[in-house]
Amino acid sequence: xxxxxxxxxxxxxxxIPDKENLHFRIQAGxxxxxxxxQSVAHDGVCLTVTEVAxxxxxxxxxxxxLSKTNLSGWKSGTLVNLExxxxxxxxxxxxxxxxxxxxxxxxxxxxxxxxxxxxxFHLPATHAHLVVEKGSICINGVSLxxxxxxxDSFTVAIIPYTMAHTNFQSLEKGASVNLEFxxxxxxxxxxxxxxxxxxxxxx
Length: 203
Description:
Radius of gyration: 17 Å
Structural class: mainly beta
Strand content: 35-45%
Shape: globular
Helix content: 10-25%
CATH topology of the largest domain: Elongation Factor Tu (Ef-tu), domain 3
Strand order of the largest sheet: 10-9-13-7-8-12-11
Largest sheet: 7 strands, antiparallel
Number of domains: 2
Distance between the termini: 31 Å
CATH architecture of the largest domain: Beta Barrel
C-alpha cells in the first residue's frame, strides 16, 4: 500500500527485453536501502525489486503491466517517480494508493497559474464515473485533487515543490501518464453494479 506522496525520483539506466517482459535498472538514492522482494511504486506502478546494487536496482514489468501502463515507453534517461511502501506506523499524507494502475491518460495542456501549474488530462470514458470534483486521483504515483471536471477531462494543480521533486517537471503536452482512481470509489461502483444485476439485496 502506498500514499501517493513521492519519496524521490530515479533515472532509468538500462532497459533489457526478455521475451514479453522488460527488465529495468533504476538509479536512485534509495537503492542502498532496498532489498529484493520489496515493493516500490514507479510512476504509480507497484513493482518488485529483484536485485540491488550500490546505487541502483532492478525491477521487471510483465506483459500485463506493460499493456496497461506507460512503462513500455520508458528508455534510458527516463525520470521516474518513486515511493516505497507505507510503513504501518507512517502517516497517510495522501490517500490510499495500491500501485495498481487503472488506465493511462494523456496531457492535454499545461498552463502556469499564479505560482502553480495547471495540468489538464484526458479522462477515459470507461472510468469517468470514478472521478468526482475535488476528489483524489493518483497520476504517475502522485496523490492529487481533481477539479474543473468535464465529461472527458479534468485538471490538477501542481505546486512548485511537487514540480521540483517529481517528474511533472519533465511532462509535456501529449505525454502519457498512469492513472489510479480512488479505491473507495471503485468499491462503491462495484457494489452498485452488483445491485443493478440483482446480485445483492437492496438496503
